Structure formats: C-alpha cells, structure tokens
Amino acid sequence: MPTTAIAGPAPDPMGAGRTPTPEILAPEILAPETIAHLEERARHVRLETIRLIAIAKVGHYSSTFSCAELFATLYYDAMRLRHGEPRWPDRDRFLMGKGHAAVGLYPLLADWGFFPKELLDGYTRLGNPLGDHPDMTKVPGVDFSSGSIGHALSAGLGMVMGGRMMGRRFDVYVMLGDGEMQEGQVWEAAMAAAHQKAGNLIAIVDRNGYQLDGQVDEVMGIEPLADKWRAFGWEVHEVDGHDVAALATLFRRLKQDKTRRKPACVIARTLKGKGVGYMEREAGWHLGYLAPEDEAAAIAEIMGQPASPAIAQKDAAQGDAR
Amino acid sequence: MPTTAIAGPAPDPMGAGRTPTPEILAPEILAPETIAHLEERARHVRLETIRLIAIAKVGHYSSTFSCAELFATLYYDAMRLRHGEPRWPDRDRFLMGKGHAAVGLYPLLADWGFFPKELLDGYTRLGNPLGDHPDMTKVPGVDFSSGSIGHALSAGLGMVMGGRMMGRRFDVYVMLGDGEMQEGQVWEAAMAAAHQKAGNLIAIVDRNGYQLDGQVDEVMGIEPLADKWRAFGWEVHEVDGHDVAALATLFRRLKQDKTRRKPACVIARTLKGKGVGYMEREAGWHLGYLAPEDEAAAIAEIMGQPASPAIAQKDAAQGDAR
Amino acid sequence: MTAAETLAGPVNPGSWQYRQLNARAPGLSYLSDALSALVEDGHPVMAGTADLQYSNGLARFAARYPDRFIQFGISEQNMVSAAAGIATTGMTPFVATFASFLGLLCCEQIRMDVAYSALPVRLIGHHAGIALGFYGTSHHATEDLAIMRSIAGLTVVNPADGPQLAAAIKASADHPEPIYFRIGRGQEPNVYDDLPDFRFGKAIEHETGTDLTIIACGTMVHPSREAVRALRASGLSVGLIDMHTIKPLDREAVLAAAERSRIILTVEEHNILGGLGGAVAEVMAEAGTKAVLIRHGIRDEYSLIAPPTHLYRHYQLDAAGIETVVHDILS
Amino acid sequence: MTAAETLAGPVNPGSWQYRQLNARAPGLSYLSDALSALVEDGHPVMAGTADLQYSNGLARFAARYPDRFIQFGISEQNMVSAAAGIATTGMTPFVATFASFLGLLCCEQIRMDVAYSALPVRLIGHHAGIALGFYGTSHHATEDLAIMRSIAGLTVVNPADGPQLAAAIKASADHPEPIYFRIGRGQEPNVYDDLPDFRFGKAIEHETGTDLTIIACGTMVHPSREAVRALRASGLSVGLIDMHTIKPLDREAVLAAAERSRIILTVEEHNILGGLGGAVAEVMAEAGTKAVLIRHGIRDEYSLIAPPTHLYRHYQLDAAGIETVVHDILS
Ligand SMILES: Cc1ncc(C[n+]2csc(CCOP(=O)(O)OP(=O)(O)O)c2C)c(N)n1
Ligand SMILES: Cc1ncc(C[n+]2csc(CCOP(=O)(O)OP(=O)(O)O)c2C)c(N)n1
Ligand SMILES: [Mg+2]
Ligand SMILES: [Mg+2]
C-alpha cells in the first residue's frame, strides 16, 4: 500500500493523458505499481466524494465508496479512452444504472480532461452541470444520463447495437446497483443482450448488500443472483469488488476475449460505505452528510489511519439540501 | 377419446353447477370419465372460439387453442368456484396475461352461470361486454382485466397479498404467454412473489413456441425458461399442456400442498393452433379469420375427423374488423 | 417493388401477413417505404419494433434492410431506452409499437432517455385512438397526445394519412428534436396525394369560414373534410385546418381562425382533455380570443368496444357524426 | 406517539432516518398519520412503497402496522399493478413513490389496472415538481399532472400542505374513484391548520380580486398567498384560489374568478402545458370568458439543477418571484 498522503484534489501520478491499452497486457503482468496506482485512484474517488458532498450538503457517500475500486479500475485500466476527447467515437462506454454514485465519477472525468476541474467546485450549484445523477447533455464524458434506476442496461445494449450498425467495436460497461436488480427493465435488457449476442456488453453489479430502505435481501431478495444472470444467457464472474488486482485481471481477460458471444456479468462483492467504518455499519448512510468536523476524521480513515472510537459511533449528519 | 358429436354451443354434460372439490380427490383416482369430460370441455373451448370469432371476423384462434386444455382443467377440475357467484370472496382467481385468448374463456364463464349465455352471441359487438381482451368491469367472472401483456402476474400477486390481509386463502392462477416472458414486469412480479412466499400463486406459461412476429426463440429467445423461474425462486413443473390427465394431476397436487412457500410455475408445452392442422403449421394464424366455408372443416377436425388435404394448405382468411 | 418481393422468411405471398400488408391496411406501407427512401438517400436510419412488425408493416422494411432492423420482442421499454443508446452512436432509430404501449407504457423512458437526452429518436405510435376497436382499452390510446405534449423537447406529430406520414418522415431527416409520430391503423382513406408539402409546426388550411372552423388532426382530418364539404354545400361558412403538429402548435393558425370564426371546434381521436383541444384551449385562453372553443373527441371516458367503424359512428367521429355535431352547434 | 416509538427495525432514534422523519421534513408525518387514522377508524387500508419508506415517511406507518405494509423494492410498476390486485380483495391500498416514477414510469399501469379497472387504489406521488433539486430531471416531475389528468376515471389532487393532505386522505374514505395525490417533499410551510375542510373538486377561495386572480395548486399555494398578501398591501386587487383538485376541476370557481378579474394567473410547480394551466385554459376557452389567462410554472423546459430553494427563486416560484410576475403583468 502506498503511503503518500493526499490532501484535497489529488495529483495525477500517472499522468492524466495515459490511454490504457490493456489488450497487449497479459493479466499476469499486473505490476505492483499498477495496483498501487489503482488503489490510489480509488482513494481519490472517496476523497473527492467527501469534498464534493460537502458542497452539496447531502449525497451518496456509501453508494460511491462501494464502487470506488470499480471506477478506478475501469477508468485507469480497463477502458479505452482518449484524454480530452470525450466524444471519440471508438471509446469504450460507461453507463451508470446507479447514477446516484456519479459524484465519484466526475473527478475521474475531469482527470481525463473531459471538462475543466474547476467545475467540480460548483457541484450541484445552480448553473453547474454536475448533479447527483450524471447528465450526458450537460457533462462531457458522461456517456448516458441516468437517475431513474433500471434504464442503463437497455441504453448500453443500444450502444452495442448502434456500434455494430456503424461498424465500430467498443466495449460497453454498465454499472448496476444490487437494488437495481429489482427493476424489470433490467431483465428485459438482459434477455435482449443475450439474444443479440452482445459479447461486448459488460454488466457490473455492485453487490453492496444495501439499498435505500435497508438490506437488499430483506427489502426484496435477489439471490441466487448469479443463477439469474446465467439463466438469462450471460457469462457470470464473481469478484471481490475492492481488490483492484482481481478486478483489473478480470476486466483485461474480458477485453482480450474478442470471440465472446455472451454478454458478461461481473458480480462485484462490495461493502456499502467501504472505507469509513461507521458508514459500512449503518444503512442509513445511503443518503447523508458528514458534518464538517467529521470530515477530517473520515479522510484520515480513508488514508489508512485508524478511525477514532468516537467516530465509529457516528451516524450520518443531517443534510438539508434535498 | 369420446365420440359424441357436439354442434354449436355445447351442452354441459356434467351440469354447470358442479363445484369441483379437488382437495379430497387423490391424483391417482382421476377417472376416465373425468378425463373424457375435461377433453370434451377443451373441445368446447375450441368450437366456441370458432363460433365467436365468426362474429368478430378476426381473432386469436391459435392462442386460444393452445390453452384449451388448460382452461378446461382449471375451470372444471382445479379451481374452487361457485356456480352463479362470480364474486364469491373465497373463490380461486384466474388471471390472463395473454388476455387475447379470452374468447375461449367466456364460454366457460357463461357455463358457470356468471352471465347469460346469450351474451356470447354478441361477442365484440357494440354494447356487448365481451371483447378480444377480458374486462373485469364489464364481464362477471373475469377476475382481472388484461390486454397489455405483462401486468397479470403482478395483479395476481396483489390478490394473494390482499387475501392474506383479509384473512382469506384462495389460490391465484395466472396464465402467461411465452412471448410474455419478455416483459420485464413479469420478472418484477416473479421476484416479489418469491420474496413474499406466495405459495398460493401459480403461474402457468403457455409454451406454444410462437408470438406475434414468429417463433419465440427467433424473435427474442427465452430459454432456459425453467432455469429462469427457478433462479427467481419458484418451484417449476413442466407438463404436456394438452394432456388433461397430466394437467389435472399436477394442479391437484399443487392444491393439496398447503405448506408450499414457493410460488409454483407450470410450464405447459403446447402447440399454438392445436387441433387444426394448418394453424399448427402457420405462425400467421396468431390473428386470423376462418372463411365461413372453412369453418365446418375446422370443426370436423377438432371433433376428431381428419382434415381434407385442401384445408391443410389453407392460411388464414382475411379479417376486416381489426 | 411489391410487398411480395420485400417480405422474406416466414411470410409467403399467399399468407395472412401478405394480405394484411397489401390489401387490408394499405396505409401501412408508407412507414416502411418512407424509411427505405431515407436509407436510399444515405441517412443512417434503422427501425425496430416490439413484436408488431406485421401490425405496423415494418416487416417490409425488415425484409429489405435486415441489418437495419431490430426485433425487440414484447419489451417496449427496453426498446425505447435501447433506441436512445443506438442514437448516441450516430444512427437515427425509428421504433414502432401500438400507441398505447409507446405513449403510455414507455412514457418515462421517452421523457428521460429520448426527450430530455435530446437524442434523435423517432417514435411511431400506431393504431392510436380507438382504432383497435374491440381489443379494448388496453389497446386504445386516447391519452398519448396529452402525455407526449407534456414532455419538453419532444415534437409531436399526428399525420392525417400515409402520404403525410411519409412527408413528415422525409422532413424529419433535418429535424433536430426527437419526434413522436402518432398514426392510425393504415386503413384510413388518404387525404393527400403522394408526399404533400410538410413543415413541422405549420398547419394546413383547407378551408376558411366565419361560422366555425374545425381544427382536426390525424385520422379525424378525412372525416372532417367530408363533413366540411357537406356543411359548406348546405350554405354554412365552415373552415378546416389540419393541425398535424400538436407540438409545437401553430399558434398563428389558431389565432387567425379564432379571429375569423365565432367558434373553433377541435376534432381528435383522443380524450378532449389535454390533447389537441387542450393545446388549442391554451392558445385561445392566453390570447383572450373572442371565439369560443368546443372540443369534440372522446369525452374523458373509456370507449366501448366494437369494430372501429362502429365506434367512430357511435362517438360521432365519422363524417356524418362531425357534420351533426357542427349542425347542432350552429343551430 | 413520537416517531421514535413508531419506528422499528434498523432505524434507531439517533439515526439519520429518525431525524429525517422528524426534523427535516415535518410534512412527511401527515401521510403516515392520516393513514393510521383511517386504520383506527376501521377502514381496510394498507400502504406500500418502492424502496422509499424514509423519503415518504411511510416507515412510520410500517412500524405501527407492519401487517398492513408492503415493501415492493425498486419495482414501481409491479407495485401499482399489485395494488390493483390488492384492491380487488377489499383492501384499499395507498402506494407511494417519487412522483416522477409513479406519474410517469407507472402511467400505463395506472390507466389500465387502476383507473380503467375503477379500483379504489390511492397513488401518492411525492417530491413532485422540481422538489428534488439537484437530483435532476429523472427525479423531477413536471409532467405528472398533465399525464394523470388525461386518464379517465382518476381523481387528481395536489394538496397544498400536510394538513390538507391529511384532510384529503380522510375524505378519500368515501371517494369512489381511484386518486392520484401529488405532494411535495414535506418541507413546505403549512398553509392550513390541522384537518381543514376538504371536498374533492371544491376549490378554496382565499381572496377575491378584480385586477387578477391567482389559481394555484400544491406547493405553490403558500408562496402565492405570501405574494398576494404583499400585492394587496400595495393596493392591488388580487385574488387567490387554492385549486387542490385538478380533476375534476372546479369549473364554477374558475368561471367566477374569470368573471370578476381581468386576468387569471395559474401558478403550478409543473409544466405550463397540460397541467393546472391547461385545465383552466380548457374551461376558459370553452366558456369564452372575457378574462385572459397567463400560465406561470415551468415553461416547457427541463429545470436546471440546484438545491430546490435556489430553483424556486430562479424560476420565480417563490413568494418574491410570484409577486414580481404579478407586478410585471399588471404594469
Ligand atoms: C426508478 C427508481 N426508483 C427509485 C429510485 C430512488 N433510489 C435512488 S437510490 C435507490 C437505492 C439503490 O440501491 P442500489 O441499487 O442497491 O444502489 P447502491 O446505492 O446500493 O449502490 C433508490 C431506490 C430511483 N432513483 N429510481
Ligand atoms: C404490452 C403489449 N405489447 C404488445 C402487445 C400485442 N400483442 C398481442 S398478442 C402478442 C403476442 C403474444 O405472444 P405470446 O405471449 O406467446 O402469446 P400466445 O398468443 O402465443 O399464447 C402481442 C405482441 C400487447 N397485447 N401488449
Ligand atoms: Mg446496493
Ligand atoms: Mg406464445
């Protein structure tokens, strides 16, 4: 684990302009520096999330923390992107069924040069393009708008089909919440993707165990989840969603396999709130606000310092901006 | 197979008022008369379908023929009903996701004394309550309206839940088309029913292999279907949907098992158009109209006489009433 | 090229589908043919449907351009969101299903993924109104104009016939907004000859009159025209406007008619709330016109079931019915 | 009973949910409490939500009557159709989710399974309009009134505050039609005291005026009242009507106001097309009133994102904004 302390908006150790070319990298040669870099990027997601939600005064910390390593691995290892070219037609696409975690994505899009970093500072303020949910009409680099849970897999499938008609091949990654599995449209899209042999469609389920009203299994059970995807004609991979090495290896393998005719579903086992102990333990943090005095402690915990016992008792401070 | 010829609206050999009490009948003692009766009722469904569509001048023969034995077994063996009491609160419920087969249901509802048989003669005519799709606001005995494919399983689940709250226990049967499996709402309902342990909910999939635009597997493949239902937490039974003995045995067994906590899905393998050879062979019959001169031959075939070669070539005559 | 040549696969020339496409609903061919013309002109269009390729005639397009056709099965919402995804790649998708399922079942996907996302998706809601007769309310769409009209950034068009649909599809090639096309069942008599003039948002004035002006849309233009002919022959000064674009509405046309006539009568195969009548009411009430508005259509109720022609008669939505309505108003 | 007592399970008194229910959105408790009152009066009501029991406060009802509560997870359409099924058994279900998902995503299920089927289902669309601020368009509902109004057989109510919501829920016990209740986010200041008089379809006249009458609904009643006070204090004769029932609309109230005032100004947290403004326009245009209509609301566009209070200011939907709008009109 790297020990460099990062305060505020993080620098970009590997240079923002790097275009990952995972095709030529065998999974075996995942270098320690790569792992360290991806872990650092995941921390960056968490830290920026805290910083931005402090502006909004309410937001989805825990939904973002659970997929921080996914964001990092996708945007700094798996996806083919070009710095400063958010509309490059051959880029890989990324869609968020769980659009409410966009706060963690924006910093990465800024880092890729898709829009000026200063925009981050006005997160959710009148006139700023960055809201709780990602908006393709406002934010360069957002491949599709979301917010209404359940549409994204359909839209991603559409991109695959459109790409096919336009004679382009790119991969389409769609990140879904585990609560999102309850929306029927997801299964319409899942069935259609298998039927269309959309091998370049990759669904990622952030299996963090919680949705708004509590534990997914209590609210509306979705298990056996892998069986569901398999029965809908998908190839299923289960992985530790906080292990960037495992994630990168898996995504590289998926990218290298150009003959796959089944769409692939990655079930990423995660912790909702990962990185801040009391958020991991309290479902109410789905939507919350860290009082300013708690921010530093949360940041310290994310940076690898143990949380103080007082903090471990905390629950979410009240947001007033909803 | 019984040989009694039935012309026009059939008589009711077993007396319309019979309330089946399958709880006390062991599956083993399915008497030959019972089988013959159910087969006769299925033929009645087909013959009435032909008669009524002749009034409408266009209709869903083949969708109805595939589930004729299902209608017969449910309405004359499985379901708890009371003659003349369509709103008896403890009755079993029947819902049709594939509402476009209602033309085959109406004659049975009339037979149960839920409305005067004369109404059948005005099928689809202005002011008559009987349309292509079943309408609970107009037709006594119709437990829920349909026509928009995909809602019925949700509504059926609601009946189970409502019954529970009202302290009533009845079984709810929901007949679904195999094309209907493509509607996401079906999977929302399937997931919810398993979560709610709706053991008295029974879904029946009329697996006739065709939908409007052609073969289900070509239009939008749904296999492996049993795996899908199982992965959604249902108990699955596969059965020959034209074998009334097999159907009755299965439904009796399901009814007797009062401890079941999983909802049950019956996948009934059927032939779309079953009973009229050329309809079985030509998908275009999803919606069609038998020219008056072909009616007698179709009736003869249903009654067990071989179809003439000329008829076997036929396709659907043109309906003009759509 | 005849349908027999364009149809492939399970549809053979003697079959039911063949006759449906050719004889029963001649209006259906306009959709496929107009799309084919766009393809031939080099436009990156594609088509999709949700298990209704014979009802909307897209089987004809599918047979000609199989690579530009997607069959979505019975999953309309997936179709609309996927169409939006397709549109992000540079293709212009035309997706079609019954208006009841497109305009109602997919309303949120249309708002979010299509209209709000400002993607060039074209939505074809066919068999709108009560055209599906005894299929009943599930298959009727007498709310879709009101619903689609409430969605910002969406153009809403209700062509009167096949030729006007074809003209609108042709014109759509340069239209920046997503579009909802609301059409009938393809059995309506034509009002126009091939490819009439068409401009989005520009109504077509057929007749001017001082006693009353009918503003009609979609399938109601033809019977209104018949009615207007009879009324004028009987000496009444009755005008007629084909308001094919419900949104953006041609305000000037409404105001000019309201200036000229004492009475404006809207005629639509739709609830009299919120649709064409509602749109015209908004213009008139805001302008404070002297004319009064009367709305004719489905009177905020669910239609009976019956064959469509019987329903049109019953609800006075055929030529004779409209003529009677006008006579009753003017006497 | 405090919320602390009613909440069970994972919600503990020190938690975020607790504070949300009690401090942050005090208006939310009215829904649960009004439903509880119905239970206590012996009505067979139940409640359901789609993973939003803290946003709509139904957690409070669920804790009190766990057997009368169903959690549907994130599947709104299943919830609505299931509610219809529940209603067939004699229970009266109240199902609640964000208005964007209820009024748009479930529009077809509402028409078919609830309204057309004439079942006593009560639909609660909360956080309507732009109340979800920077959650963006997916979470805004500025079309739901237009959509729900187009559906025959559905009563559409937009209470001004918690007390009026409670009164409407109480009154709903004898209401034969299914109802769509459109409410805010529970943070609005109250207009009324506890359980004010409420009759479906009977508007509430706050003030009469000759220069202009504001007809407002829902969350816009409170700022309109503030604005009217200021305007009257400055010598203008401005009236105010709370048009809580959008359908059936109180025609008499509209016509009386249009008789008295030169100008009618509708104010709604909704698109100015098809909603309250549209409904009032239809009445005025058909009656041929002398008054002119001006519609204030969201002008057929998608709202910016920002905290809701910032948006209300930006779109002149707060008291100061409404006052300015009226001043601009009258000068
Ligand atoms: C269609 C729809 N219904 C409801 C919501 C409200 N909502 C926002 S987040 C959320 C819970 C999501 O849970 P999950 O999918 O597990 O995502 P997580 O945050 O746990 O990653 C809900 C219900 C929504 N955004 N869209
Ligand atoms: C939501 C919806 N979409 C489309 C239709 C039009 N439609 C009527 S029947 C049918 C095909 C049904 O196929 P299937 O479910 O297999 O039923 P079958 O007639 O074969 O038993 C379609 C698409 C509909 N009724 N509802
Ligand atoms: Mg989750
Ligand atoms: Mg089938």
Automatic annotation (TrEMBL), chains A, B:
Superkingdom as given in the UniProt entry: Bacteria
Organism phylogeny: Bacteria, Pseudomonadati, Pseudomonadota, Alphaproteobacteria, Rhodospirillales
InterPro entries registered for this protein in UniProt: THDP-binding, Transketolase_N
UniProt name for this protein: Transketolase
Disordered as annotated region, ranges: 1-21
Family: Belongs to the transketolase family.
PANTHER family reported for this sequence: TRANSKETOLASE N-TERMINAL SECTION-RELATED
UniProt cofactor(s): thiamine diphosphate
Record's keyword annotation contains rRNA-binding: no
Domain Transketolase N-terminal: 43-304
Keywords: Thiamine pyrophosphate
